[in-house]
Amino acid sequence: MRSGYAAIRALSFAEVDQIRDRLETLNPWRDTLKVPFLKLEKENFDLDGERDQLFAYCVSAKLYCLFNLDGNGLVIRKPSGHGLGFLQAPYSIADLQQWTGQKWQQDLAPWIYEAWHFMLSRELGLPHVPPRWLKQPAAMAVPITTPQVLQRLGCFKDQLRPFNIVTVPFPKKEINQLWTGYFIMPYMERLNDLHGRPMVNVVSGATFYIYDKNSSSSSKSPGWVSLRTMEEEINHLLSRAESKFCTPNGGTCTSKTIGLLVRRHIVAGEFHYIGKEASTRWTGGPDLSMMAEAGLLDPMDETFREYERVVDAKYLEEIREQAKEFSTKRLFFAKAD
Known about the structure:
Blueprint: H1 13-23, E1 55-60, E2 63-70, E3 73-79, H2 93-100, H3 110-124, E4 139-143, H4 147-150, E5 165-169, E6 183-186, E7 198-201, E8 207-210, E9 224-225, H5 230-238, E10 245-246, E11 262-263, E12 273-274, E13 306-307, H6 313-323, H7 328-336
Parallel strand pairs: 8-9
Antiparallel strand pairs: 1-2, 2-3, 4-5, 5-6, 6-7, 7-8, 10-11, 12-13
């Protein structure tokens, strides 16, 4: 490219169609289901059914957005909810339908489309109106699912029960406020008026109070903390670095890396046996007890669990000797039964 970055030549619509036609002969569903082998997704077409130029803005492997340019504006076609879906929505689908009088047809929440429109317009220097919820506190809504969390509800112990939905706000890290883990409070549907409300730190059990400088004329007192805003979460999202690839020259990617990335080489070392990946924060179904930010509520509550493989060699040898008494065929049918 003229900028000096490596690139891959983009195929024309005609070249893409030629490839699709060649592979269509392999289609096992051509006569029965009448479905093409390589289908063109709906994002490739405009409202009139004509092929339209589709653009992609990619932050990392799962964090991207497909869009069309329309004059001095853009149209969001397929946004990624990764990194945004865990946040409590600033408004609901029902709210939007009431405001517009139209039914929402997309799978993702409308505010995610609005967030990506804001992010891309700002990044591309296009005219835009910032969402009115940008300064709203960032939080997520999750259920109480473990007894460890129930034991640390502090001043909310008489209000909350197992599987109650709670609000988890995101306080700012401040020098004069020492705390670890995360906070919870009774579920709040609207997050635009949280000043003075209590929240409990689930690691220490201490009560803190939310400070909103826009709602208070007094200075912040000890035990009062400010919350991160939706705008700060969005900015943090865009600053994430791709971890599965390297820079064009093989270095580590940063938030400023651009260009054609190369595969990151993985060297296998010692094998470790771990439990399932427990961080579900990015997919919209977080579990409080398994959040990496939670701190250690219980010796078993870690983001992942590693197990040592302790096997008695004498026991294994005994199994091998007994197995020799059976034919392979007999072992196979025994397993099948």
